[in-house]
Amino acid sequence: MPEPAGTEAAPSLSLTERRRAATQLDIARAAATLFAEHGAGQVTVESIAAAAGVSLRTFYRYFRTKEDAVAPLLSVGAGEWQRALAASAQGDPRRAVPELIDSLLLPTTDAEREGLRWSRGVLRAMDDDAALRTVWARVNAESERRLREIIAELTESPVANFGVRVLAAAATDSIRLGLEHWASLGADPDGSAGTPARLARSAFAQLARGIEIEDEELGIAERDLG
């Protein structure tokens, strides 16, 4: 998930926690910029720390590897997405997802456009770096897990409900696929065709077609298998 640029730490955090989050994002942005410009294989921890204006000791206080450094940049957008879905009205979350995709992936400010460009650079660098792909997979898996909890609460269904699991996977994968395909095209966030939002909405429309959330556990699985 891309960073909604200009995102600030939640006001409930302490001053120390806000500073920590800001430092993490500074390092993440520096890493993303260097990965996009040079490829992950040509970037060192030392160069990331220098670009972020921190010491090596500070870098390793927050991250174990250079690839881990981009995780906050990728996951902060997922947090915004989860909070927006949780705040949506009770009922069918399938109706809320397309609007939330637009709110997340349609940039309206220069800072938001820059945030998407950072994410695009990281996604393109993943082609040649398995460790970066692992970080991206971890971010998406955690987002899907959290979405299951939110969708279950919105629909008053068990977290283990099959339809809840499928819908959480469809919502997560629609954004993942939209961003990955957009990054592969090299299109600008404001392009009239092939934008990440347009692609993600299309993916969700196809992936979510026919999903039902049953009151009876495994109702969908039993009907589909039978």
From TrEMBL:
InterPro entries: Homeodomain-like_sf, HTH-type_TetR-like_transc_reg, HTH_TetR. Residues 21-81 form the HTH tetR-type domain. It comes from the Bacteria. It holds the Pfam family TetR_N. Residues 44-63 bind DNA. Keywords: DNA-binding, Transcription, Transcription regulation. It comes from Leucobacter chromiireducens subsp. chromiireducens. This is TetR/AcrR family transcriptional regulator.
